[in-house]
């Protein structure tokens, strides 16, 4: 699982495959670099993580807390990321 590339993680998360296994690995990568890029744009992994349904985050409060900690370190927020952060923060 830890050998997956950023793009692999982004795709799995976007397709909602194995989130309980993939999200912890993605958060580990995002701790190192919140704007990790797959094939789309800087921060595309973070955006994919932020777009995971609120029901997942409610069921996984420890992971949600880790994500909030990562977000606190994100100062550069391009539009794609800013919109996803807003949606995550408001529970949409």
Keyphrases for this structure?
92 residues; mainly alpha; 0% strand; globular
How are the SSEs placed, and which strands pair?
Blueprint: H1 6-14, H2 19-32, H3 44-50, H4 54-59, H5 61-72, H6 79-90
Helix pairs in contact: 1-2, 1-3, 2-5, 3-6
What does this structure look like?
The chain is mainly alpha-helical and 92 residues long. Helix content is 65%, strand content 0%. The chain has one domain (6-90). The chain has helices at 6-14, 19-32, 44-50, 54-59, 61-72, 79-90. Helix 1 (6-14) crosses helix 2, helix 1 packs parallel to helix 3 and helix 3 packs parallel to helix 6. The model has no long low-confidence stretch (mean pLDDT 92).
Low-confidence spans: none
- The portion of residues assigned to helices is 55-70%
Number of strands: 0
Apparent shape: globular
Give the count of structural domains. Answer: 1
Oligomer class: single chain
Q: What structural class do the secondary elements suggest?
A: mainly alpha
Q: What is the gyration radius calculated from CA atoms?
A: 12 Å
Written as H for each helix and E for each strand, in order along the chain, the element string is HHHHHH
Number of helices: 6
Estimated share of beta-strand residues: under 5%
> Major sheet, described briefly?
none
Mean residue pLDDT = 92
> How far from one another are the termini?
29 Å
Pfam families: CdiI_3
InterPro entries: CdiI (IPR040547)
């Amino acid at each position: 699982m830890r050998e997956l590339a950023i793009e692999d993680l982004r795709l799995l998360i976007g397709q909602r495959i194995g989130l309980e296994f993939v999200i912890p690995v993605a958060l580990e990568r995002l701790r190192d670099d919140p704007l990790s890029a797959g094939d789309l744009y800087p921060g595309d992994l973070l955006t994919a993580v932020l777009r995971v349904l609120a029901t997942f985050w409610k069921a996984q409060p420890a992971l949600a807390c880790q994500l909030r900690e990562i977000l606190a370190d994100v100062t550069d927020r391009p539009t794609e990321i800013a919109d996803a952060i807003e949606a995550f923060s408001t529970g949409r």
